[in-house]
Amino acid sequence: MIPRKVGWNRNSCVSHGNLESSVLRKYLLVIPYWVLQWMVAHAVVALIAMDRFSLEDWAEVATDRKYVQFTVLSCGVISALQFVLLFPLRRPTGRVSQSTALSFSVAAAAVGGAALAGGILLGLAGLHDLLIRPAAINPRHVNAFWWSFWACVALSWFVFWRLGAAYMRRGPMESRLGRLVAWIFAGSVVETVALIPLEVMIRRRLDCYCDRGGFWAIMLCVGVGLYTLGPATLLHVLARRRRAWYSGHCRGCGYDLSGLNGGCCPECGSPKTPLEIGGTSSPTIPAKTP
Question: Residue ranges of the domains in the chain?
């Protein structure tokens, strides 16, 4: 989806026109994908928000001003997270220059895992409302639930972030990050399928469903699935296409080592060990040293 960015080093020169062409191709692919993503999110979420399906009711919900503002804000957040997630993949390079960007990328991926954890809590809240059917909701209980909800989401994000960072240290960036995002996408699908029967029962037995936990749990799962679907596909494609590049470049700075003799990289002085797509010398998050 996003073409390889043209590099600039001592062995090759890239014309200004080629650089402009590369940037143009990238935006010609990314911008339409984001627009399509927004349109799909707007249509699907409007369908979920409906009590029963009819074209007139769907059009009324989809054109509601508050609903349009909600979907624009939500899709803007999703697009920003996708940008942070894929930022270290803008071009092949060595691990040194990628470590900070990759840490932010893993933190962005952990947002999806934390959202799924929050969806489980909301689903349990919806199940509670279905079984207990409270006549009136105590505001104190609602406030206590939301404080507990955000605390659990924050803790889940931290746990996912630390586990993801530890996982990324064991292998190549594209492959590991691709698997991490694919697992989150699979989790969103499984959780959505599990929540659909609960949502059906809530809509049949309760008068108002839009303020129940099951509805917002499904909304979170749909958002996570939309957030991870594109990157999960792109990361696996990049992992295959960059195999040849990794086999002949410096593991420290990404300098092209083809045809060079000597034991060190002439650019950064690192040992001349080519990056291997399946080995531990591929770009990863370096472990912290005391």
Answer: 16-241
